[in-house]
Amino acid sequence: xxxxxxxxxxxxxxxxxxxxxxxxxxxxxxxxxxxxxxxxxxxxxxxxxxxxxxxxxxxxxxxxxxxxxxxxxxxxxxxxxxxxxxxxxxxxxxxxxxxxxxxxxxxxxxxxxxxxxxxxxxxxxxxxxxxxxxxxxxxxxxxxxxxxxxxxxxxxxxxxxxxxxxxxxxxxxxxxxxxxxxxxxxxxxxxxxxxxxxxxxxxxxxxxxxxxxxxxxxxxxxxxxxxxxxxxxxxxxxxxxxxxxxxxxxxxxxxxxxxxxxxxxxxxxxxxxxxxxxxxxxxxxxxxxxxxxxxxxxxxxxxxxxxxxxxxxxxxxxxxxxxxxxxxxxxxxxxxxxxxxxxxxxxxxxxxxxxxxxxxxxxxxxxxxxxxxxxxxxxxxxxxxxxxxxxxxxxxxxxxxxxxxxxxxxxxxxxxxxxxxxxxxxxxxxxxxxxxxxxxxxxxxxxxxxxxxxxxxxxxxxxxxxxxxxxxxxxxxxxxxxxxxxxxxxxxxxxxxxx
Length: 499
Known about the structure:
This protein is α/β, with parallel strands linked by helices. Helices cover about 35% and strands about 20% of the residues. It contains 16 helices and 20 strands. It is elongated, with a radius of gyration of 27 Å.
């Protein structure tokens, strides 16, 4: 195949995704999960970028540059191939000498123009097809880079800027202290095969000691007769440098999609006739469905729930309250919502705190209440100081054992929480606790599965049919929770990186 094909193609057939970097600014998570595998709404960033290349440009072959935790990247590639059986997706080893060198290492494999995307960049509602329009206007161009206009100069300082003459790029500046304009350079590049020639002509950076890709493009812009042109994109752009960048991306996407999500409330009952009506009425207008999962109540609980026209299912637990965990999991099986909320049936929580759970669900996998704020605890409830102290201590113990995941817990037994159904399905098989300790087990499973579980303060009211909580009960709970922590950390027989 000739070195320089005429640029009359209606699609770009070759793509490159750079997915090799260590992502040190997102540590500790990147010590066990590479950034291209961070999940946003059910898909990894790598999967989304493959999707972008194939559906926008008709790419037929994609080279994925791999390095850090490459086994995980390769495993994801195998998974992605199932969605694109006609596309060749091949992993290629990095050079460990920077992005420019990694791309240049593909010279013997690529003999035509190609589109490169950085593996830790996520584009939402993007119009990358603009690259094809620029190519049509400048069929012999040496390269084109994606840019967006932003008023946040701090974003430009973290990336690079460009100066233009119409749509022709005059020069690039890596991480400028004083950006010359509001144009933010992106990690989306169209390259002709001239890239390989100019890479060889570009000296290493005095700062990094390696050839920088922006320096290669800058040299192409200044010296090639074919020129480098800007592709103006309109999109929501997320450069996932840190965990906060990732949470921001998750939040923005979920916030945009939130009206489409459905919510299910699960109420596990067991002889709660005195409180069930109040609980249902309080929460009823805020959910798409309410599920009462009843453990063979002997009183009027079921009849009262049915009177409120909610879904009622029977759990065959012989009224045994020590099967609460199994009961809740059964109720979740019946739920059809995207967001699952579990609340106790005794009136100890109110729907006024539900909007807070929802807001934090936009960038978390699980949100659980904490009852440790004294001003939010009703006088006369069973939350005695010693009980709160025990829960606080056990929450902190979970933090210590999974320190690398950066959890923050102050309550290990709050029966008011929300979780994405997708997140729940990822940990479901690891849930074994039959009793009320299912909550701390679920918290641990979310954390040890590298997902995000956060606490928010919620109000706590005196429960109907309040049960006295004695010191020996606290000791028993302490022993149970400690055993769960030890078994999850050391004795499960699973290999979980990062623990």
